[in-house]
Fold these 4 entries.
Entry 1:
Amino acid sequence: MAVTAPAELSAAATLIDFWNNYINPAVWYSVFIMIIVVINFCEVKIYGESEVFFAILKILLIVGLIIAGLVVDLGGSPSGDRIGFRYWKNPGPFNAYLVPGNTGKFLGFWSSLISAAYSYANIQVVAITGAETKNPRVIIPNAIRMTFWRVLIFYVVSILIVGMLVPYDDPNLGISTGDAQQSPFVIAFQRAGINVLPSIINAIVCTSAFSLAASLIFMPLVYLSLGSNSSVVFGWFVNITTIAGLIGWLIIEVTYLRFFYALKTQGISRDRLAYKSPFQPYLAWVTAGALILVVLFSGYSVFFPGRWTVSTFLTYYVDIAIFVFLYIVAFFFSRSGIVALEDVDLSEIADVDHEKAGILHSADQNFSRWRKWII
């Protein structure tokens, strides 16, 4: 999570280049860092309200983009061109990468997993809010359940709209000038002859990147981008932070599997828990296996002839070395092995049973129907 901050600050500066690329990015980095430091020195109420404000902007932006994208796709743009699924037929839904044919299309899909995973990074932090939430045993499970619908609407539907509006062979998708002109939504509206929306999109996305960085640390790392193109360094940060996040998810999966089998070994039913996910432990095993594959083969492209660079290789695989090193150091100093399943401390489940009935009853009485759906 912490390393995400420089990536977001780099992204914010890149977005500003859309309007003005004559000012050194270091100026924007310094301005953003100063504002973030001031916000973090404020009381929790001010910080929380600022994050809520930025979150509302992001939600309104995504909903607006989906609606505007549908209007453009159905012929409501100034050009009057009805696009439909035209670009899914010509040039097609998948672009070959590195090698021609279906193999190249699969490699292109695989290479996009890192960029896609970056968007989902830290989605698990909703559980961290439990310490500052009233009735967390009710609120957190409900929030987790709603995560599926938020991902479906704000991520999957928006990507579907982009795929309908912009063909993969659009030359603007491949530019790396350090500005935001390669944003798919910006390209889509520029192709439709709508020139005002790109500036609005970039302004709100810039605040989005800035607000996320406000909750993280390691911000001075963003100055590393001054020695290279900001979009290139942003790609490095994306790789490093995404792989770190995937390793974190893998640890979560391993921890859950240990918890699951500890419950089974000690004869404790999962029905006593505040939340019980379905299809376990099979989903956890499948997810863990998929994460291992993505982490190990994330940087496969550097091994193709003529594509090897040390910097790119390190951005994909340095996290693995860091994790192994930290694990060995922790094991050396703690001198504690893996706890046997029958010795795992699950005594707090009795406290859950004691609190669960009263909390659920009070929550059902206090929440209206629409509020239950939102949370």
Note: The first helix runs from residue 4 to 16.
Entry 2:
Amino acid sequence: MRVEELMREIDVNVKKLVEVFAFLFKYRILFRGTGVEFAGLKEYVAGEDDATKIDWKASLRTQRLYVKQYEEERDLDIFILVDASASMLFGSQEKLKYEYAAILAGSLAFAALENRDNVGFAMFNEKIIGFIEPSQEIANYYHMLENLSRVSNYKGRCKLGDALTFVLNNLAEKTVLFVISDFIGLDEKWRDGVKMVSAKFDRVIGIMVRDLRDTYLPKEVGYLRFQDPFSGKILTVNVDKIRKKFEEEAKKQEKEVEEEFLRSGAGFVKIYTHEPFIEPLIRYLELWEEY
């Protein structure tokens, strides 16, 4: 996928997401806490000021009515962590998983930048790729798109635990962390990583990007050849005999990942590549109003 094509796809998808981000960020729904900080006191003016904000202790001391003033906090960062392991190159639909994830990540970044928030980014497999510290620099956004669209970046195993340890040590506490991955072939440390980042950051949201064939095999096709994306080994199997067991194991693994995120206090949403991501993602984000 070329950068120009990625930008066109983002432009098609992002308008509604920008609107939702603007609402969520305005009222600080994305973040724990009030989203405002105390700025000082001013003398109460009847008809202009909210009487519920009167500071009675200060008013009693001075024998005049004073109200508390607040300023909205704007020092929260958005960080997007994208899986670049070899399994992301798979796809049976119009878009490969890495292409779909790239459009999703780019759309999230664009929506946050439009809302004048800092955006950071990194990809990961067995190492960290293209780390960008959160900022509002548009040049960093284009650098992000270049990395997302570069096919040669996608290889190796999914060392999610190492990647989460990296962001844990390099990002501020007031961060909203999006983790975009198929969550296939995870390392042994990923559970501890999810727990640690969920405990530190304001919000952590896992977005599982799956192809239909990650979960459901085709029917009545007989023998097919499968290649392990990590080892390269090829295996010929009778699909009709393993389909049911394959589906059971795939769903079990998906559920394990989801439950670990939720148990850790993080959010989680699963999206298939044959479906547009905007509507399910927006529905999920809007649920944050309730928390």
Note: The domain at 3-28+74-216+264-290 is CATH 3.40.50.410 (Rossmann fold).
Entry 3:
Amino acid sequence: MIALASHSRACSSACSSLHTVVRDQLWASFAPAKKSSPRRLTSRSSFCLAPVARTPPSADYRRAFHTTAPLSSQSSSPRISYRVAASASGKGRRFYPSKNSYDFIPDLHPAIGVATDTQDPALRRKRRPDSGEDAFFVSKVGNGDSGAIAFAVADGVGGWAESRVDPADFSHALCGYMAQSALTWDAPAEQLRAKHLLQVGYDQVVADKSIPAGGSTASVGVGLDDGQIELANLGDSGSVLLRLAAVHHYSVPQTHGFNTPYQLSIIPPRMRAQASIFGGAFLEDFPRDAAVTNLQMQHGDVLVLATDGVFDNLNNQDILKLVSSRMVLTGAWTSTEETGIQPSADLHQLTGPEGLAPLLPASSPSPSTSTSSSSKSASPKARDQVYSLQSLIAATIAGEAKLASMDVRRDGPFAKEAQRYYPGDWYRGGKVDDISVVCVIAVEEGYSGPSPSTAN
């Protein structure tokens, strides 16, 4: 792997005022990555453990999620709508928050992250978001107005590149087929389960003759209009639920060993036969191995799904600090001495079509004084765009993970784990990888709680 040189963590400290958070953060504070000399990085383990005898002993990392009440119909539950955005950046590519962020607006597009209107593999490949071997999708469930959504992130296993297989084909196809299955779901939305959706997507990928081999991790979710969300996680992609400036839930990675996550796979018969001759074995997990958890979303909750490009470089507390600062500074979370931190009634506006525009001055000058042609051409376009709170949070997490991955002096979770397993290698810094983030904010219809105008 090639790592880029460390440069300042302007992303996390750029927001000194609310205007800076909303205006500068999305299209100016994430500085593009600069080129640098290569640095040795440990890449993800190969999809194949061959021979089996060489596999280092390791503990069983398969553990259950922290769970809340199971999915059930609750007539008294308030109606919850989900405001969703995604942000992604391929490995070795510059990150542009305005370009690499995607708002899910179901009235305009039934799905984002995938091309559901064509079956042509070449055309679908051309329409992929700039996420590298990572993939994501957000879609409606069914053709009606149930208010239910399906969403997921997937991370193609890079080890397949050694066998001349594009790892992105599997992950993007998996998300594409899951999105199609969710959109064409004709039963009641509460009957769609996250693990079932993962199984259907995997079966269709296996049946796709244009994908002869490959593998991917996945984290899949299905949300109902009463706030109930079911998550199915396979591998080291995962989720974090944040509620009122605290981590309420987080997923536990499923791994066979260090840097070797659970993964869905397609093993060609020829490669399987060769492995059996030499006594080897391929990593081959299935949707039934996914860990399932059920959550009850409340007004103001923020659910983050991300691939290991985020979790290898940011821990849960890092993500909590990023999300909390944006939620508080935009007024989405308010704080008083009497009630403590509470969600705001203005979430409808902050996450709606107007987004964060009302928080900006009527006419704001460009934050950059540069007279270069690139800044002149980019600034008007960026100012014309309307950014929502969910896209701000998704871009903030993706941007900070991007910076951390290139920082040779900042040891992230992956570096600390590598030092524990291989103390002699003295691995330091971040882990350069593809990055994908899906941010889901729960908004209760008719909520009339505290707003920034009444908060002390």
Note: Residues 10-444 form a domain with the Phosphatase 2c; domain 1 fold (CATH 3.60.40.10).
Entry 4:
Amino acid sequence: MKKSEKTGRIAAAVAIPLLTGGAAALLSRESFGLYALLAKPPLAPPGWVFPLVWTILYILMGLASYLVWSSDASAPRKKRALGLYAAQLALTFFWPLLFFVQGLYTWAFLLLALLWLLVFLCRCVFSCICETAGKLMWPYLLWLSYAAYLNLGVVLLN
């Protein structure tokens, strides 16, 4: 593969989660101010932390998906892995809409629990194809654990 083709594939793989997250943020942005008004659990970060962390996570997951996509694994294994990846990316898109736009904190928490499971499975499948890809998904899984704590705290305190 030519270097320019490889660079284009990496850029596409990273752009997919960044654009997905960006679209969700655009659709939710009018409701982000609500976060400051909510009672939050201890250790809740200020609102400016979220876009920074999510940008890093989207880049890492995009790189992980590229490593799987470009691996020597069989087409069915890649399809399964990238299908899980697409499913968790879809749930990632819908979570802020439930939480911020609709204010459905309990439903958002349940969606987050399902998202955590999908990301865990995705990480496991990615690891079987490319160990580095699986490792790149760990920060996302850890962040989702923290996000679940925050989301549950909002459910209980509001």
Note: Residues 3-157 form a domain with the Ferritin fold (CATH 1.20.1260.100).
